[in-house]
Amino acid sequence: MIHKDFVQSGSRHVARITFTLPACVWTDTVNLVGDFNNWHHSSHPFRRERDGQWSLTIDLEAGPAYQFCYLLDGKEWTSEQQADAFVRDSYGRSSFVVLTEFGAEAPRAAA
Predict the structure, then answer these.
(1) Residue 68: how many CB atoms within 10 A of its CB?
(2) How many whole angstroms separate alpha carbon 2 and alpha carbon 70?
(3) Are 51 and 64 in contact (CB under 8 A)?
(4) Radius of gyration for the chain, computed over Cα atoms and rounded to the nearest angstrom
(5) Within its chain, how far is the Cα of 71 from the centroid?
(6) Which pTM value belongs to this model?
(7) Residue ranges of the domains in the chain?
(8) Which of 54, 60, 77, 109 could be disulfide-bonded to 21 (CB atoms 3.0-4.6 Å)?
């Protein structure tokens, strides 16, 4: 799940993005990997919450669209069904997109 808040930080507009994976994801580590961290595999680790969910909140410059993936245990990539978009690079690898424009909302799952 992706939750977005837009805040003012000094003179900057910031998109505060919370990424959450459900407790049923069986793994020891989850990392957020994307173009905002040069695809570094361990610079943005998730935290396991008391309810078992995995979560991470980061601040990104508002405006751009950012590509990202989730990396489980340093070796398995997993998807985000509520991403704003899905893209493939020139090598055929897939990643997901989060939009950070003011008012941009991630799609909600059907009830």
Answers:
(1) 23
(2) 12
(3) no
(4) 14
(5) 11
(6) 0.84
(7) 2-99
(8) 54
Are 93 and 61 in contact by the 8 Å Cβ rule? The answer is no
Q: How many helices (H) and strands (E) does the chain have?
A: 0, 9
Asked whether the beta carbons of 6 and 16 are under 8 A apart, the reply is yes
Q: Work out the angle at residue 57's Cα, subtended by the Cα atoms of residues 6 and 59, and round it to the nearest 5 degrees.
A: 45
In DSSP terms, 31 is beta-bridged to: 45, 71
Report in angstroms the alpha-carbon separations of 46 from 8, 29, 80: 24, 7, 14
What would the two tokens of residue 97 be?
A: 């997109």
CATH topology of domain 2-99: Immunoglobulin-like (2.60.40)
**Secondary structure element (H or E) that encloses residue 69, with its range:** strand 65-72
Q: Quick check: 37 and 70 in contact, CB under 8 A?
A: no
Q: Which range (28-37, 44-53, 98-107) has the least confidence?
A: 98-107
